[in-house]
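Assess this one:
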Amino acid sequence: MFASFIEMKLKPGKMAEAVLMTKTMQADLQAMGMKQIIIVDKGNDNAMLLAIYETAQAQETATPKAAELIGRLGVLFESPPARMQVKVPINFNF
């Protein structure tokens, strides 16, 4: 498995708005072929997104659409998010 790992720094007080905007993108996110998406509120207007894909190719294919969707949130970011591809050696679902 592979994932897009994205660190985000939001403008002060914009976390709730970012969550709402992301929820409106659910159909677009599902269409990208992800197996799972997790967003973690790290506090202090920091968030982490982990989008899990079955293969590196699926993750790479989704890159243009992912950039578009992240761009929709651009007005809420304090600084541009850092996105990288990472391996997922363990993903337990209980």
Notes: The domain at 2-87 is CATH 3.30.70.100 (Alpha-Beta Plaits). The longest helix spans residues 56-72.
